[in-house]
């Protein structure tokens, strides 16, 4: 009787631990993907802003290089 209780307890404990670990793992993966996606979007926006600044600076510069 004690062995069967121990077996059932061990089985229930291991199933519960597996379910909890799967939920934690899934949550960590979702957070990692969200952080990666957010950083990619921010760096893309920053790159676009830098390109806009570079194009404005190029248009304002004097391409002939001489004084007029």
UniProtKB/TrEMBL annotation:
**Which key words are in the record?**
Signal
Taxonomy, superkingdom: Eukaryota
Signal peptide as annotated in the record: 1-18
The protein here is known as Fanconi anemia group D2 protein
Organism (species):
Parasponia andersonii (Sponia andersonii)
């Amino acid at each position: 009787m004690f062995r069967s209780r121990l077996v059932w307890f061990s089985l229930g404990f291991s199933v519960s631990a597996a379910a909890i670990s799967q939920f934690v793992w899934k949550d960590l993966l979702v957070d990692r993907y969200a952080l990666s996606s957010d950083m990619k979007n921010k760096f893309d926006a920053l790159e676009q802003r830098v390109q806009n600044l570079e194009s404005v600076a190029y248009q304002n510069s004097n391409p002939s290089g001489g004084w007029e």
